Amino acid sequence: MNYFPDEVIEHVFDFVTSQKDRNAVSLVCKSWYKIERLSRQSVFIGNCYAISPERVIGRFPGLKSLTLKGKPHFADFNLLPYDWGGWVYPWVEALAKSRVGLEELRLKRMVVSDDCLELLSRSFVNFKSLVLVSCEGFTTDGLAAIAANCRYLRELDLQEIEVDDNRGQWISCFPDSCTSLVSLNFSCLKGEINLTALERLVARSPNLKSLRLNRAVPLDTLQKLLMRAPQLVDLGIGSFVYDPSSEAYIKLKATLVKCKSIRSLSGFLEVVPCCLSAIHPVCQNLTSLNLSYAPGIHGNELIKLIRFCRKLERLWILDSIGDRGLGVVAFTCKELQELRVFPSGVDNAAVTEEGLVAISAGCPKLHSLLYFCQQMTNAALITVAKNNSNFTRFRLCILDREKPDPVTMQPLDEGFGAIVQSCKRLRRLSLSGLLTDQVFLYIGMYAEQLEMLSIAFAGNSDKGMLYVLNGCKKLRKLEIRDSPFGNTALLTDVGKYETMRSLWMSSCEVTLGGCQTLAKKMPRLNVEIINEDDQMEFSLDDRQKVGKMYLYRTLVGPRKDAPDFVWTL
Amino acid sequence: MSASGSVSTVSRDDHLVLSSEDSSSPVESELELGLGLSLGGGGFIKAQQQASGGGGGGGQYARILTAKDFSSVVSSSSCLSSSSSSLSRGDYVAAGTKRSSDSVAAANGSSQVVGWPPIRAYRMNSMVNQAKSVASEEYNSMMENKRKNSLVEKTTDVCSKNSASAKGRTSPFVKVNMDGIPIGRKIDLNAHGCYESLVQTLEDMFYQPTTRSSVQEPTRSSKLLDGTSDYVLTYEDKEGDWMLVGDVPWGMFLGSVKRLRIMRTSEATGLAPRLQESNGRQRNRPI
């Protein structure tokens, strides 16, 4: 039913930007499928093993931006052996061989080698943006290649990565002709950096909006950088250590006042808490503040800082803030949308249900929460649910595994039940504390929009998992560890897994036989058994319990790069 | 990779964690890391069921053992807290009561399990590293206590994934790269008692036909150690120098090796053969 020429339809499709919408559009008819695929520029692949690079390139020859995710989420917590997979080299190689004009590559939980970065830097003339989150496998040599060869580089963003052998010379590899940088984030690098080269780079980057430094950048360099880049919107401070009576401090104070555009602040990887008053002028305009890597900022100094941040929308903090500090946040940050409270590992410093209740009462716009705490009560969760039904992401981690409500000694079923019943737009949920099958009954009944669920040390029987699989129609990712779910739960609705991206089960009750049955019934799933102990053979005993199972839907069959300890059934 | 730690079984009745074999190395600040079929609480039940059922292998349960395990009888909290599965929840409520009284202690690590609390490895590492470098004295002393008690335990398995910190080896795993192969491997040095064993394992790793590498597989040559192959085995020591493997006693090698590289012989000229003759930082790959 094409009343318009293709060019017109293509122009209309330009306004359809979300991948979900574009996927829907491509299903309307063959003609729309063709127009859409030829005009699609940005592709998101949630599981790099669900499809092959060749097929992606074949379908979307106009690809400019590719986002790839590799390892499953629990890999972040060392539940996956090092060599499991997620290598991005084959993707880059395939893209390089094709005629795709790649401009942006965003990777999460993938293994990136120096050779891969080198290949990337040499293969795509217009390459502009590299964002790596929670990746591994490369050294600063690879970064040097990117710096040296990507002439129009705009963005180099490294988040939470252990990079080897920092020598700091990679920053000198940006040629003098490189003036296009908009975003540079190397805060996770551990080693020294060539400060002069950094200063010169910033000086010749008039478009620089985001700069996140590592701990090797001292305060006087920070001051010089800020002088050169007063237009910065996002700043990550490395080292913030100096003598408050020194000239450097006075200079910095003056410079910071001039940086009126800063909306996002992070870092403080090294800090002397008493000298934070220089930051206060910046605080009043901040919408995003990440102090989760700054254990040196705590107590009254932290609270003083928070009091200035009235416009904050996003706050990442350590639990050393305490319930009292969260009370201040609740009082001050009325625009708060996202809060993450990480454990600082400090004795006696922690947050409890009190802090969470205060936040839920004080911050009506809050919808995204990650909260590591000492304890939680049903009453508190019920109150939170009453105060706030906006949550889209609710991740609660009670540090003590399987801890019940300390007041009533009951499991936390009712509390979480209240959350899922109240928050109708909940998409992501992480559970903790003592939980029975009942909580899963509630989740299956009420969490209609739930897409991702993380379960650990919870439940009593297969019923728990079945409630979730039956009830949560939009479930995409389910990850379970150390919970008593077995073959019955796994096999009751095998078709469900093709509607999901992936399922992770470790230290549960599923057996080899169960997994094999599943694999046989569902050829379009890869059912991987991950076996770390080299000595253990893949015995044929069906009753043997499986340590780690990761299954995912795929269009390309078992992957060919699986290491020895991974057995795809 | 063999499990180098102890294996514990749980007797539910007396709530004790019993070690079924002695650890082979003394526990100072070192921690044993044992790996088994399943890590975490589920393994308790497996161990029990298999002990009573008498069948099946691989019923090993392992967790990160801490200094507390070796000092005296472990408190009841540590074993029950990580059990799951078919034990009735009533038991856990009882355990919870016990544990809530020392919940702070429990949360701070009387029972350790891989991947708990669920904090990204990078963040865990930086918590430890920051403890070493923060300027504030008060913070230092606080963190020092914390570090001794639980952070080091929490992050040991993380450290095993990463290169040893500059302050010294915290884990036996080193990275191994081979020229021409984009993907590196990791190897547990403690699993080997001598150079021959190490080289054998490396040869098995890198000379087997692998499908994950897109680079042409190097032709199998004779052993790396005897100088007749196209490649030599080198290592980077603590001072950043690249050395030929095999020149110093094994123990000394273990103490100074940071990572390994199987280097093309053509590139291996000029390597300082002896630790004492090293002459400053020398890298074979240009920065």
UniProtKB/TrEMBL annotation, chain A:
Question: What's the protein called, per UniProt?
Answer: Protein AUXIN SIGNALING F-BOX 2
